[in-house]
C-alpha cells in the first residue's frame, strides 16, 4: 500500500498530460470561446472594453487552471484550511477597506485587477468542508461538535458576505457548503427539520431584508406591478428570451440587447442575450455543454480514491449546477433577482478566477485519482 | 485496516447521496428546459410582438390634402413644396451661437428666438424644432450655403396647402390652418390622423369636405433604443392623398366677377339654369387665404378685420338684402298664377299711392301713367306693383316666393354660414313680432322692401327657375359621381318630373300652374333690358347670341325722409352707409336660355347704373365659355 502511495507521488509530466480529462478541458475551452463571442455581441459587435478584458482574463486564468491541475491533489488537501482562512482574512479586509460601488462593499484593488473575495469563498468553503469530512470518522458525522464546527465554517464567511451586502453570493456559499454536509452523511432528518425551521422563520428573515431586497421579491411575484421600475429587468429579460424563438435572431442581431433594453447584459443577464440571439436550440446546447462539464466532474469524483477529491468534485459539480440554476431561474423569471453570475460566460474576473481554480483542482483530482490521502 | 474499512463505508455514503443529488439535478435541468420551451416556443409570438413594440416606433407624417379643381380641372386648392428650417438640438454644438447665426441670416425677431428656446426646453433633444415653416427660395439657398457653419440645422422640403388664385375662391373654399383642441376633438378623422403641424379646413368647402380631403398619414417606422433615440429607419409606408374634388365653378368667370367687383362690396352669382351648377360665386371684397397657412400676422389680420367693406363676410350666402325691384318678376308671376291680373290689366301711376292716409311713392315722381304688366316691369313702376300686391295679399305672394326658393337655404348643408333669409307672411308676423299684418306692409313687400330679406344666391336661383320655364333646380357646387349633362338636365326638367335618387320617388319639378304665366314674366324681363325705356336698356346686348333678359333693383337701406326726397341728391352727396344697394338679376341668352345670374353692389346706388352694366360685361364671357363647358361634360350617358 505504501509502495503504491509512493508510485503515485512520482508520476511524470507526460503521465500528467496523459491523465488530463480532455473532454472536460475541451468543454471548458469551448465555453470560453463562446463566452468571448457573446461578450463581443454585448459590445454591439465591436471589440471594446468588455470583450478585451474578458479575453485577457481567459488568457491569464486558463494557464492558471492547468498549473493548479499539475499540482498534486494532496497538496490542495493540505492547503485547504489555510486557503479558507486566507479568504476569511480577505473578507475581513474588504469589510473594512474594500472598494464601495453601487451601495455595497465587496471588492479589493489588486492593481492588476479588482478582486471579489466572496467569489473565492465559494471554492474555499467546499475545500475546507471536503477536508473536514475527509478526516472525520463516519461515526462522528452526526455528533453535536462536528455539526457545530461545519455550521460555523459555513456561517462565518456568510456573515461577512451578507453584510457587504451580497445576498446572491451568500446563498451560493451556503448551498455549496450544505451539499458537502449532505454528501458527508449528515442525517436526512436534520435537513428536513432545518428546512421546516427555515420555512417557519421565513417571515422573520424577510423582515430583516433590506427594502430593495423585499422589492425584488415582490417584483418576482408580480413583475407587472412596476413595469418601468423594479419589474423592468425581468420583463425585458423575458421579452428577449421569448422573442428569440426556436433558432434565435442571429449572432449580433439581438434587438433587445443591441438597443439597450437589456440591463446588466454583460454580467448576470448574459444568458438573456445568448438566448435571444441563438434561440431555444442554442440555449439547450449551452445547457448540454454545462451538463457535460458537470457530468465529467462527477465522474472524476467517482473514480477518485480519496474522499477529499471525491467530496470536492461532487461538491464543486453541485456548486456549478447551482450557479447555473440560480442564474437561469433568475433571468427566466422563476426566481427573484439575486446577483449571481453564469460561470465563465458572465463578465467578472473573480468569478472566473474561482471557477478556473475549481476546474484546476478537479483536473488535479483526475490526474491523481489513484492518490490516497491519509 | 479499520481506517480503510470506515473509509469504504464513507465512500458508499457519499456515492449514495451523490446519486440522489444527480437525479435532482437532472429534474431541475429538465424544468429549466421546459421553461425555455414555454417562453421561446409556446409564447414566442407574444414576446416577439413585445420585442417589436419595444424597438419600433411609428412616426405619422401629415397627410397630403386632396386637390380641389374647377370644372375644367384647373387646381384651385393644391399643394405646394415649401422649404422649412428645422433644428435638431442634440446635434447642435453651441445652441446660442447657432441662434445668433440664424437670427442674422433670417432676420428672426427676439420673440421668435425666445420661442425657439422655450421649445428646446420642452422637447426631447432628438425632436426637431421648426424654426421657420415657410422659407423663401433665397433664404433656403442662403441657409444651404452656410450649412457647414450651422451644425444641427436641417433644411427640409415639405408640402403645404396652396391657393394659386389667391383671393378668387376664398369665400367658396375657405382656407386651412392649424386646428385648435376643440376642432381635433370634434372630428374623429382629424383626431386619428392628427400630427403636430398639420392643417385642417377652417371655413367653406375646406371645412365641409374635411373628411374627403384630409388624406391618410404616411408612416415612418424607426428602430429606437431603450432611451427612445432613433437608430434606423425600417420602412416608409406611403400615405394616400385625399380625394380630388371637382367643383362646378369656372375660374375664368369667377376671376372676371372679382375684377368687376373690384374695390366694391358686393356679390355675383352665376348658375346653370338646368343642372343647377354654380358657375361662379364671388363675394367682394375677398382676402388672400394663403395668408392663413403659416399664421397670419397681426397687422394683416387687423387690415382684413377692420376693412369697412367687410371682406370676412360671405355676402353671397350670408349677406341679407332687400331684393328691391328684383322681386317684381315673382310678384307678377304670383298675381298671374292666382288670376288676380292678366296681361291687359292696367294701373294708373301718378307717382304715388295713398293708403289709409299713408303715401307710397313710385321711384318716378311724375308717375308712369297707365301701365300694363309689361310696361310696369320694364320701367319698374312701383305703383303698379303696390296695386297688384294689394290685390294679391302677402300670403299668396309668400307661397309663390317660397316655391321659387326664397326664405330657404339654397345649398342646404354645404356652407354652415349660409343664411335662409325671410319672406314674410301674416302668420310669420303674428308668431314672431306678435302683431297683426298691416296692408301697407303688403305694398312694401310687393316692391321688395320691408321685412323681406334675400341672399344673392337665392335671387340667382329664383331667376334660374324663371329662366328655365318654371322648373325646380337643385343648385350644386360639387360635381357628383353621377353627373348629368346639360342636355339631359334640360330634357328631364322639361318632362316636368325627375327621379330623386335619395327618396327614390318621382318628383314634380313644375313650379307653375300655367306655364304661359312664366312666359309672360320672361317677356316682361326681356322688355326691361331690351326695349326702349327699360330700366337696363343701356346695358343690353343686341346680338341674339348674348342677348339677355333681366330686372334691376334698387334697395333702400334706410327710410327716405320727405326732405331727402325733395333734395334728390346725387349718389356722391349721400353718406356711403346710406346709399341704396344696387341689384340686378338676369338670364341669357334670351332664346334658349342657359345661365342665370344675380349681382348686388352694396351701397352702389341704382341697379340700372351700378349693377346692370356688370351683367353686360359678364354675359359675353359666360356665353362664350358655354361650348367649352359643354365639352367638359361628355359624361357616359346613363341608360334607364
Notes on the structure:
The complex is a heterodimer of chains A (374) and B (640). The longest helix of chain A is centred in the last third of the chain and has 34 residues, at 270-303. With 374 residues, chain A is an all-alpha fold. The model of chain A is unreliable at 1-7 (pLDDT under 50). Chain A has one domain (2-367). The termini of chain A are close together. Chain A contains 15 helices and 3 strands. In chain A, helix 7 packs antiparallel against helix 8 and helix 14 runs antiparallel to helix 15 (349-367). Chain B has 640 residues and is an alpha+beta fold. Helices cover 40% and strands 18% of the residues of chain B. Chain B has 25 helices and 21 strands. In chain B, strands 2, 3, 4, 5 and 10 form a 5-stranded mixed beta sheet that branches. In chain B, strand 11 and strand 12 (278-284) form a beta hairpin. In chain B, helix 11 (251-260) runs antiparallel to helix 24 (607-624), helix 14 (328-337) packs antiparallel against helix 22 and helix 16 crosses helix 19 (439-446). The longest helix of chain B is centred in the first third of the chain and has 41 residues, at 2-42. The model of chain B is unreliable at 1-6 and 635-640 (pLDDT under 50). The A-B interface holds A 133, 137-139, 179, 182-185, 236, 238-246, 255-256, 259-261, 275, 279-280, 283-284, 287, 291, 294, 298, 301-302, 307, 310-311, 314, 318, 321, 325, 328-329, 332, 334 and B 6-7, 9-11, 13-15, 17-18, 21-22, 25, 28-29, 32-33, 35-37, 39-41, 43-44, 46-48, 50-51, 54-55, 223-227, 231.
Amino acid at each position: 500500500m505504501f509502495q503504491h502511495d509512493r508510485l503515485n507521488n512520482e508520476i511524470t509530466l507526460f503521465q500528467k498530460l496523459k491523465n488530463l480529462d480532455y473532454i472536460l478541458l475541451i468543454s471548458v475551452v469551448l465555453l470560453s470561446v463562446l463566452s468571448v463571442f457573446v461578450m463581443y455581441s454585448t459590445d454591439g459587435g465591436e471589440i471594446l472594453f468588455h470583450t478585451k478584458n474578458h479575453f485577457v482574463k481567459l488568457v491569464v486564468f486558463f494557464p492558471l487552471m492547468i498549473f493548479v491541475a499539475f499540482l498534486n491533489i494532496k497538496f490542495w488537501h493540505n492547503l485547504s484550511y489555510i486557503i479558507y482562512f486566507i479568504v476569511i482574512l480577505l473578507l475581513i479586509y474588504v469589510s473594512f477597506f474594500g472598494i464601495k460601488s453601487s451601495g455595497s462593499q465587496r471588492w479589493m484593488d489588486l492593481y492588476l485587477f479588482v478582486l471579489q473575495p466572496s467569489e473565492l469563498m465559494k471554492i474555499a468553503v467546499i475545500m475546507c468542508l471536503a477536508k473536514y469530512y475527509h478526516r472525520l470518522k463516519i461515526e462522528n458525522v452526526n455528533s453535536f461538535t462536528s455539526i457545530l464546527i461545519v455550521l460555523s465554517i459555513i456561517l462565518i464567511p456568510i456573515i461577512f458576505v451578507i453584510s457587504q451586502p451580497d445576498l446572491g453570493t451568500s446563498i451560493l456559499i451556503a448551498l455549496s457548503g450544505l451539499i458537502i454536509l449532505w454528501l458527508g452523511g449528515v442525517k436526512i432528518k436534520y435537513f428536513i427539520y432545518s428546512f421546516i425551521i427555515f420555512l417557519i422563520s421565513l417571515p422573520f428573515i424577510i423582515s430583516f431584508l433590506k427594502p430593495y431586497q423585499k422589492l425584488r421579491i415582490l417584483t418576482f411575484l408580480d413583475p407587472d406591478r412596476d413595469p418601468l421600475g423594479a419589474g423592468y429587468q425581468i420583463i425585458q429579460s423575458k421579452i428577449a428570451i421569448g422573442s428569440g424563438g426556436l433558432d434565435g435572431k442571429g449572432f449580433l442581431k439581438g434587438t433587445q440587447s443591441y438597443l439597450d433594453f437589456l440591463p446588466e447584459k454583460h454580467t448576470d443577464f448574459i444568458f438573456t442575450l445568448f438566448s435571444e440571439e441563438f434561440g431555444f436550440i442554442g440555449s439547450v446546447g449551452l445547457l448540454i455543454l454545462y451538463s457535460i462539464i458537470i457530468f465529467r466532474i462527477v465522474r472524476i469524483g467517482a473514480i477518485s480514491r480519496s474522499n477529499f477529491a471525491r467530496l470536492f468534485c461532487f461538491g464543486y459539480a453541485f456548486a456549478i449546477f447551482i450557479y447555473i440554476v440560480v442564474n437561469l431561474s433568475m433571468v427566466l423569471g422563476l426566481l427573484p433577482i439575486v446577483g449571481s453570475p453564469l460561470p465563465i460566460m458572465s463578465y467578472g474576473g473573480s468569478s472566473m478566477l474561482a471557477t478556473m481554480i475549481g476546474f484546476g483542482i478537479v483536473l488535479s483530482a483526475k490526474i491523481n485519482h489513484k492518490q490516497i490521502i491519509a | 485496516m479499520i481506517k480503510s474499512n470506515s473509509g469504504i463505508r464513507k465512500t458508499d455514503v457519499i456515492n449514495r447521496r451523490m446519486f440522489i443529488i444527480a437525479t435532482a439535478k437532472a429534474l431541475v435541468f429538465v424544468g429549466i428546459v421546459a421553461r425555455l420551451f414555454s417562453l421561446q416556443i409556446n409564447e414566442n409570438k407574444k414576446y416577439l410582438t413585445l420585442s417589436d413594440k419595444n424597438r419600433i416606433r411609428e412616426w405619422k407624417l401629415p397627410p397630403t390634402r386632396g386637390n380641389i379643381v374647377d370644372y375644367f380641372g384647373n387646381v384651385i386648392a393644391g399643394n405646394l413644396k415649401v422649404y422649412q428650417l428645422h433644428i435638431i438640438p442634440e446635434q447642435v454644438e453651441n445652441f446660442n451661437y447657432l441662434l445668433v447665426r440664424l437670427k442674422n441670416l433670417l432676420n428672426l425677431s427676439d420673440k421668435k428666438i425666445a420661442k425657439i428656446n422655450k421649445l428646446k426646453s420642452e422637447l426631447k433633444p432628438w425632436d426637431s424644432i421648426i424654426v421657420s415653416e415657410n422659407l423663401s427660395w433665397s433664404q433656403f439657398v442662403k441657409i444651404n450655403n452656410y450649412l457647414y457653419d450651422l451644425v444641427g440645422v436641417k433644411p427640409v422640403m415639405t408640402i403645404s396647402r396652396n391657393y394659386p388664385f389667391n383671393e378668387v375662391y376664398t369665400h367658396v373654399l375657405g382656407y386651412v390652418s392649424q386646428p385648435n383642441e376643440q376642432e381635433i376633438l370634434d372630428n374623429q378623422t382629424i383626431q386619428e390622423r392628427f400630427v403636430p403641424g398639420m392643417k385642417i379646413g377652417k371655413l367653406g368647402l375646406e371645412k365641409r369636405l374635411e373628411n374627403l380631403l384630409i388624406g391618410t398619414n404616411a408612416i415612418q417606422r424607426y428602430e429606437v433604443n431603450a432611451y427612445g433615440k432613433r437608430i434606423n429607419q425600417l420602412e416608409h409606408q406611403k400615405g394616400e392623398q385625399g380625394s380630388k374634388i371637382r367643383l362646378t365653378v369656372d375660374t375664368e368667370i369667377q376671376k372676371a366677377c372679382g375684377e368687376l367687383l373690384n374695390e366694391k362690396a358686393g356679390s355675383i352669382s352665376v348658375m346653370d339654369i338646368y343642372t343647377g351648377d354654380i358657375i361662379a360665386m364671388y363675394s367682394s371684397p375677398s382676402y388672400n387665404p394663403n395668408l392663413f397657412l403659416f399664421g397670419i400676422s397681426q397687422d394683416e389680420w387687423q387690415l382684413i378685420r377692420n376693412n369697412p367693406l367687410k371682406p370676412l363676410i360671405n355676402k353671397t350666402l350670408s349677406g341679407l338684402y332687400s331684393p328691391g325691384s328684383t322681386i317684381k318678376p315673382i310678384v307678377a308671376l304670383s298675381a298671374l298664377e292666382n288670376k288676380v291680373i292678366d296681361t291687359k290689366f292696367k294701373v294708373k301711376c301718378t307717382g304715388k299711392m295713398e293708403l289709409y292716409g299713408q303715401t307710397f311713392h313710385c321711384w318716378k315722381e311724375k308717375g308712369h301713367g297707365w301701365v300694363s304688366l309689361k310696361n310696369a316691369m320694364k320701367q319698374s313702376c312701383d305703383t303698379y306693383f303696390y296695386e297688384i300686391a294689394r290685390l294679391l295679399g302677402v300670403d299668396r305672394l309668400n307661397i309663390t316666393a317660397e316655391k321659387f326658393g326664397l326664405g330657404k337655404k339654397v345649398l342646404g348643408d354645404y356652407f354652415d354660414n349660409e343664411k335662409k333669409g325671410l319672406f314674410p307672411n301674416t302668420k310669420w308676423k303674428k308668431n314672431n313680432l306678435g302683431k297683426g299684418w298691416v296692408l301697407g306692409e303688403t305694398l312694401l313687400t310687393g316692391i321688395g322692401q320691408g321685412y323681406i330679406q334675400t341672399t344673392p344666391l337665392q335671387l340667382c336661383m329664383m331667376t334660374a327657375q324663371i329662366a328655365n320655364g318654371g322648373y325646380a333646380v337643385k343648385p350644386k357646387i360639387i360635381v357628383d359621381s353621377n353627373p348629368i349633362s346639360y342636355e339631359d338636365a334640360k330634357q328631364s326638367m322639361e318632362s316636368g318630373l325627375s327621379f330623386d335618387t335619395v327618396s327614390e320617388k318621382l318628383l314634380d319639378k313644375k313650379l307653375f300652374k300655367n306655364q304661359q304665366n312664366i312666359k309672360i314674366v320672361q317677356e316682361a324681363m326681356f322688355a326691361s333690358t331690351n326695349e326702349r325705356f327699360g330700366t337696363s336698356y343701356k346695358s343690353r346686348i343686341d346680338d341674339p347670341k348674348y342677348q339677355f333678359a333681366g330686372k334691376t333693383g334698387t334697395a333702400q337701406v334706410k327710410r327716405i325722409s320727405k326732405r331727402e326726397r325733395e333734395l334728390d341728391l346725387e349718389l356722391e352727396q349721400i353718406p356711403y352707409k346710406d346709399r341704396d344697394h344696387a341689384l340686378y338679376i338676369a338670364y341669357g341668352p334670351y332664346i334658349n336660355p342657359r345661365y342665370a345670374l344675380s349681382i348686388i353692389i352694396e351701397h352702389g346706388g341704382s341697379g340700372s347704373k351700378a349693377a346692370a352694366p356688370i351683367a353686360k360685361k359678364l354675359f359675353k364671357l359666360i356665353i362664350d365659355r358655354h361650348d367649352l363647358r359643354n365639352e367638359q361634360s361628355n359624361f357616359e350617358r346613363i341608360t334607364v
